[in-house]
Amino acid sequence: MTHDTPALHDLTVAGLAAQLRDRKVSAVETAQHFLARARANASLGAFLDINDEVTLAQARLADVALAAGTASPLQALLGVPVAHKDIFVTRDFVSTAGSKMLAGYRSPFDATVVANLARQGVVTLGKLNCDEFAMGSANENSAFGNVKNPWDITRTPGGSSGGSAAAVAARLVPAATGTDTGGSIRQPASFCGITGIKPTYGRASRYGMVAFASSLDQAGPMARTAEDCALLLSAMCGPDPDRDSTSLDVPAENFGRSLNDSLEGLRIGVPGEFFGEGLASDVRSAVDAALKEYEKLGATLVPISLPRTELSIPVYYIIAPAEASSNLSRFDGVKFGHRAEKYVDLIDMYKKTRAEGFGDEVKRRIMIGAYVLSHGYYDAYYLQAQKIRRMIADDFQQAFKLCDVIAGPVAPTVAWKLGGHGNDPLADYLADIFTLPGSLAGLPGMSLSVGFGADRMPVGMQLIGNYLQEAKLLNVAHRFQQATDWHAAKPEGF
Ligand code: GLN
User: Fold this and answer.
1) Per-residue confidence at 73, pLDDT binned at 50, 70, 90?
2) CATH no. for residue 230?
3) Per the structure, how many domains does the chain have?
4) Which of 10, 251, 432, 459 is the least buried, fewest Cβ under 10 Å from its Cβ?
5) Which residues approach ligand 1 with their CB closer than 6 A?
């Protein structure tokens, strides 16, 4: 490569895929480059497992197909390295879900999302750190250490897909997978200045995604641009009727098909509730400026109301733990993962295994979940929460009568300092306020970087669309990225 060409790690997925197709660079060279970067930046804590042999073997296969020129247009990602959030199980890498419970665990199969990407010729670069069982907003709940934000290593990268966001922002990998139950793709994308999208619930198969809250969990891509997210998302999604009964019966789509559509006449709903007292002024200014940019691009801003925004916090923190307490009952020391060494009988083995294997936040949620589902409290908490969840979904449908997409902040503040919320889980929960409503409604949502706030920390803007409107969201984000260059900003030293 000459001096004028951008370094491999500065290329987008689309740019890198083109170079690979044109044989300007080989998949093996690319993989080696990124493996070296991942190693050199190990102190960020983003990667939990790397395996050169596996990665290079995949890269060699990609090179064979690239050299033969047999790549079909369906293999748009041939040779592009992607790393997976460690919540996806993988045959060739350790799969821990960020938990001591699964330390060293090897899955006998690949998650559907992982397999779908592999079929497109993606080269797996490794596994990425995350909050334990995806529970958290700061990546501080991982059993394997926290991840650092490349924009300021004293700050959180966000969570739970913190390793994915940090790795993409630091250019250790061109794109990564994440999962979003209550904001875990959007919020870390926002905190690390990248782009991420959570599709409509059911778009991507949950098979092989270690379950947290099954009615909310959804996979999605994290990359630097909306165009890259469209490429990845198109490869990840599709029905999986035999393995995930909640996967939608809608065919895989090319989500990038309308990236360049004009925004003339687009109605952007701006929910008053997202711009109240709790919103930090630096975040507000960046989001306001982005909304102005959209007006320049031809969109009109429409004030809307999502009246139950605040209620989404208690509703989510009842429903998600309820489902988690049920899902995590499978970790009993018998089927997989950790088992206590010393115990007197079966019950004692269960107890010690779970006491040793789970971290504090996971235990807290199992207890809350078991409580809200228990006889006598079920009606008061769980049932009420389900009713309000339905109302929140209805509120969005009212709003979508007035607008095509909804825009607002992703989080009330920029990334906070590691340890900044101390031992106060509520402080983390409250910071989820803007991502939870869309999650509870099962709507697609994304985050794109729209500027910087205090201490030059990135600010993300959230776009929420109606069901199956991912292509529209990506179009709206792409046009903004064509007109501005926030997405190209790079943390110093990377
Ligand atoms: N921060 C939220 C939680 O702790 C969301 C996590 C997620 O989306 N996985 O549950």
Assistant:
1) low
2) 3.90.1300.10
3) 1
4) 251
5) 134-137, 160, 180-184, 212, 320, 432
